[in-house]
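This part of the workshop introduces the protein records we will be handling. A learned vocabulary of local backbone shapes supplies the integers on the structure line. Getting from the letters to the tokens is the skill we practise here. As an example, a complete record with its sequence and its structure tokens follows.
=====
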Amino acid sequence: MYFWVLAAILTIVAILVVTVPLLRTPKRALEAFEFDKELYKDRLVEIDRDLALGRISAEEAETARAEEGRKLIALSRSDRSGDSPKAGLSGRPVVIIAAGIIAIPLAAFGLYSMLGTPAAPDLPLSARASGDPAGQSITELVGRAEGYLAKNPDDAKGWAVLAPVYTRLGRFKDAANAWQNVYRIDPDYPEIRATLGESLMGVSNGIVTERAHELFAGELEKNPSSFKARYYMAMALAQEGKNEEASQAWQALIETSPPDAGWLESAYAFRDQAREAAGLPALNDAPQSAGAAPGPTQEQVAAASDMTAEERQQMITGMVARLEEKLVEDPADKQGWQRLVRAYIVMGRKEDAAKAIETALASNPDDAAFAEQMKAARAELGN
């Protein structure tokens, strides 16, 4: 409260210091003719001095005095015929401006006294940082997290929480640094290599750099079923101009992805682009509802991010089992057979993949294009 009173007083004093001089009546400046008169007197004294020293004769002195007199008369006529400028500002506008300047802070102070809480004590920065997070802005929360991590730089979970926030704020370099800290502290953090590589792509404007490529490859060595790593490895192939290999990688990802995966729509689009660039015929097998396919819920994303590699493998095994049951009921589902065969290949179950290929061919004998795809899968299996 005392601070605001003091601030108001200082504001008023500052305004008065500026406006009071404007309210005063300005002194009349010395007119030009008065100055010329003083100059005329000095000039006469100078003429008399020259005459006394013998520099000029008496006749020359008289002529000089007459000339100075004529100059003074001419100047007096000029000043009287001209309008002398009025110095200073009009008092009324200055008073109005000053009143407005003074009234604004007084009105603000009055409103704050009625609507605010002037009696509430000021909160130090430390108290604000430790307050209820629900009432803080995103900037305050980020600053709070940064302060905590500055004191606890080895908290992998803290860096993992802060990194996605950096990404949402467009601070891609900070996000990459945060994920790098997670990788440094906990190399076994779920899909950390793929996540760090993805973050580095944000810094490089979507380009799979050499470092990101190494991370994706490392993720696939540790976790071959990582959809994220496989997605970006396919993208890397396309960026390298290996369009045929990229189309195969996209196809493999499509066939093994859950039907409601959020990345399927872009995978179909990238695959078709790669096939077109490689001169391969279009497949036109993207589902009509692919663009409207719902992505995973927040609960599913959170659950998947907390899974270990073994838990994710169990999840994929369960999905494959459900797909097997579905194909027993509907053996004409060609896309289902493609996904099942690809899943078997990725999981290393070559015998099951070979059996699935034969069953798929027997169940769809009239589809030549599908038969070619299955034969290609069989050739890949043999290699």
Q: What stands out?
A: Residues 91-115 form the longest helix (25 residues). The chain is about 75% helix and 0% strand. The mean pLDDT is 77.
